[in-house]
Design goal:
The chain is of the alpha/beta class and 287 residues long. It has twelve helices and eight strands. Helix content is 40%, strand content 15%. The protein is globular, with a radius of gyration of 17 Å.
Length: 287
């Protein structure tokens, strides 16, 4: 795997069930130096069917001001995986918590910051409930929706399941990205031309279990509404309506929350609106 803006070899933290979870040091861009006073480390957590390389645009710029790390969630990249029957979103919470504990201990600080995209944001929220090593949480369109609202129809889930059953990972991924994430035909065609596309197709079998897990009690708005560390909820102004509904509903329940909308952005502002995305995160973390 090319290192790009990441360390060439990952570090490994064992999650509570023994699964090895890999995380990479995000490198400061060549010729740049880390600016300002020492800040707590930041852990970046990717969304469905992705891996740590989804932070290739935003990560290095964040690393100019603080130590930044990006993990591979279980089942993709350099991380291990437990048996499918053992999967639950609680395991994802434990994975993020394990790395937060390790990074806080190594940095000699009480807690670190975490930022997650989509399902990764949900994992960050859940992790903050089970460890004291998380100081602040940033979530980009990862909020659970209230009862009676759904990110996806049963028909779409059935289409993803059927594509995976016949071994057509690309069809499963494309169905997910268009029907649930909301990618346009043009955006999907552009995505298919990116060098990371084959890795995203390879990770498609993890999509179904995450779709199913996010509908469970541990991922619900009732459970995650108990997060009591400061949370920044980010939203794209042209994203599908369930993302707005979930963001607003979760904000009503959180004790310490800030909501910001990125004008003109959809579900991938960390690629399409990097300047605004980074400015909001840095302002929030630097308080």
């Amino acid at each position: 795997m090319p290192a790009g803006p990441f360390s060439s070899s990952p570090e490994i933290a064992a999650s509570r069930d023994g699964t090895p979870i890999a995380y990479f040091d995000v490198l400061v861009p060549s010729g740049a130096a880390r600016a300002g006073p020492a800040r707590p480390p930041l852990l970046l957590v990717h969304g469905a069917a992705a891996d740590h390389t989804t932070w290739r645009a935003a990560g290095p710029r964040l690393a100019r001001r603080r130590p930044v790390f990006a993990l591979d969630r279980r089942g993709r990249g350099a991380s291990g995986d437990a048996a499918s029957a053992a999967y639950s979103i609680e395991r994802e919470y434990e994975d993020v918590a394990a790395i937060a504990d390790a990074l806080a201990a190594r940095a000699g600080v009480p807690a670190i910051d975490v930022a997650g995209h989509s399902y990764g944001g949900r994992a960050c929220l859940g992790a903050s409930l089970i460890t004291e090593s998380i100081r602040r949480v940033v979530v980009y369109e990862g909020a659970p929706v209230p009862p009676g609202v759904s990110y996806r129809s049963e028909e779409l889930v059935a289409d993803v399941r059927a594509a995976l059953a016949r071994g057509d990972n690309e069809a499963a991924l494309s169905t997910f990205l268009q029907g649930i994430v909301g990618l346009t035909d043009t955006a999907l065609d552009s995505y298919r031309r990116e060098t990371v596309w084959p890795a995203r197709v390879a990770a498609a079998p993890t999509i179904l279990r995450e779709i199913e897990a996010e509908a469970g009690p541990a991922a619900s708005i009732e459970a995650l509404g108990h997060v009591d560390v400061p949370v920044l909820l980010l939203l794209g102004s042209i994203s599908r309506s369930p993302f707005r509904i979930g963001t607003d509903a979760l904000a009503e329940r959180l004790a310490h929350v800030q909501v910001e909308v990125i004008k003109g952005a959809a579900h991938a502002a960390h690629h399409t609106h990097v300047d605004r995305f980074l400015r909001l995160i840095e302002d929030f973390l630097d308080r």
